[in-house]
């Protein structure tokens, strides 16, 4: 199906849906048809603009041919033709982006997991800094950021921290953060001023509901145990902590931050469901990535994606070769959009290349 045929099909479907909605009385069917019609709105509007542009261009080219003897009219017609051709390119680019199959998870909320990697205590401190960076970024976007499970070290670092991030199109922006983040800086405990290199791993998973992924109870082993908090409010004298093992995959999720066993189980199931869903997505992404030179949007957990160099005040994202000399702005979340926007643009360019091939 060529470009024009795709647009014709979209516009025909829009008319069909409008007619069906005018006749339908069943509430659930109306909701389903309305959702599909709403999803087609932007591409249909762009399609109509493309057909109108093509008509205008045909007329302008006819005037151009007929006005050879009238230099002034000919010059005006030439300008119109050039302007309409430029407009056509912009409309086509917009349409191609709209026609690219959407990531079903883009509109979902996210589960953010940050883990200390190589580098000992300094890596744990960096994991803490990254977790706070995303908390600030979420606040700047009006998203809700809720810590679900935090495993602290003795001097304020995080071995592991998990949070849910809720809001509009959360996953579509945060999914590019998955991978290995490397830091280069002088630790506070380093008396000689020597720069250390350490790392933390970020995983961003789409938060899925039970309707998105069914888990068979017989595939689970659920253990309860006493919370092992460092003291104060986290110490619980009942077996409120929950560990869930998914037997077919061996995935293990443990939650102990809540006093209620029920709440800990609910949180653990939410994390497990998202990890299983993500495993399925990773497998599909790997297959698709084999035909792509780059994997900007693949979320490869083992890939070193970004370096934070504190002595030089710079942050470099290796996937798009972008360097910002604004490490403070990145770490407080205010400059992170500049990197994420570049990653989204690169991902769209790659998909456009696939569309044209």
Textual characterization of the structure:
- This protein is of the alpha+beta class and 357 residues long.
- The chain is built from eight helices and eleven strands.
- The strands form two sheets. An eight-stranded mixed sheet has the order 2-3-1-5-4-9-10-11. Strands 6-7-8 form a three-stranded antiparallel sheet, with helices on one face.
- A hairpin with a 4-residue loop joins strand 9 and strand 10 (314-317).
- Helix 1 crosses helix 2 and helix 2 (27-66) runs antiparallel to helix 3 (71-99).
- The two termini are 13 Å apart.
- Residues 230-236 and 291-295 have low confidence and may be disordered.
Features:
357 residues, alpha+beta, three-stranded antiparallel sheet, 8 helices
The tally of helices reads: 8
**Total DSSP E strands:** 11
Helical fraction: 40-55%
Order of helices and strands: HHHEHEEHEEEEEHEEEHH
What is the 3D form? flat
Evaluate the radius of gyration: 26 Å
Strand sequence of the main sheet, in spatial order? 2-3-1-5-4-9-10-11
Strand % is: 15-25%
Oligomer type = single chain
Mean pLDDT: 86
Cα(first) to Cα(last) distance is 13 Å
Largest sheet: 8 strands, mixed
Which class do the helix and strand fractions yield? alpha+beta
Q: Which parts are unreliable, with pLDDT below 50 for 5 consecutive residues or more?
A: 230-236, 291-295
Entry summary:
By secondary structure, the chain is of the alpha+beta class. It has helices at residues 3-23, 27-66, 71-99, 120-140, 170-174, 261-289, 327-331, 336-356; strands at residues 110-116, 144-152, 158-166, 179-185, 196-206, 220-225, 241-246, 251-255, 304-309, 314-317, 322-324.
């Amino acid at each position: 199906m060529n470009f024009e045929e795709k647009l014709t099909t979209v516009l025909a479907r829009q008319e069909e849906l409008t007619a069906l909605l005018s006749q339908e009385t069943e509430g659930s069917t109306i909701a389903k048809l309305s959702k599909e019609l709403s999803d087609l709105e932007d591409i249909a509007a762009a399609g109509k603009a493309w057909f109108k542009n093509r008509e205008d261009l045909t007329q302008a080219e006819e005037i151009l041919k007929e006005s050879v003897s009238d230099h002034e009219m000919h010059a005006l017609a030439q300008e119109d033709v050039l302007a309409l051709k430029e407009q056509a390119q912009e409309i086509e680019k917009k349409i191609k982006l709209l026609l690219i199959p959407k990531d079903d998870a883009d509109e979902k909320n996210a589960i953010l997991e940050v883990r200390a990697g190589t580098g000992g205590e300094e890596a744990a401190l960096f994991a803490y800094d990254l977790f706070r960076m995303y908390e600030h970024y979420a606040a700047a976007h009006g998203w809700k950021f809720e810590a679900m499970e935090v495993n602290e070290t003795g001097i304020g670092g995080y071995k592991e921290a998990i949070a849910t991030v809720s809001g509009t199109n959360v996953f579509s922006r945060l999914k590019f953060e998955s991978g290995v983040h490397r830091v280069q800086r002088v630790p506070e405990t380093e008396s000689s001023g020597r720069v250390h290199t350490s790392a933390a791993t970020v995983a961003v998973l789409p938060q899925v509901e039970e309707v998105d992924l069914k888990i068979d109870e017989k595939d689970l082993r659920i253990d309860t145990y006493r919370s092992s908090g460092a003291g104060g409010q986290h110490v619980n004298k009942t077996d409120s902590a929950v560990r869930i093992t998914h037997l077919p995959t061996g995935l293990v999720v443990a939650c102990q931050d809540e006093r209620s066993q029920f709440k800990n189980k609910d949180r653990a199931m939410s994390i497990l469901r998202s990890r299983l869903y993500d495993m399925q997505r990773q497998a599909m992404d790997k297959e698709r990535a084999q035909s792509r030179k780059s994997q900007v949007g693949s979320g490869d957990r083992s890939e070193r994606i970004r370096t934070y160099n504190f002595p030089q005040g710079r942050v470099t994202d290796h996937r798009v070769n972008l360097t910002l000399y604004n490490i403070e702005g990145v770490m407080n979340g205010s400059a992170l959009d500049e990197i994420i926007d570049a990653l989204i643009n690169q991902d769209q360019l790659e998909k456009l290349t696939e569309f044209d091939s």
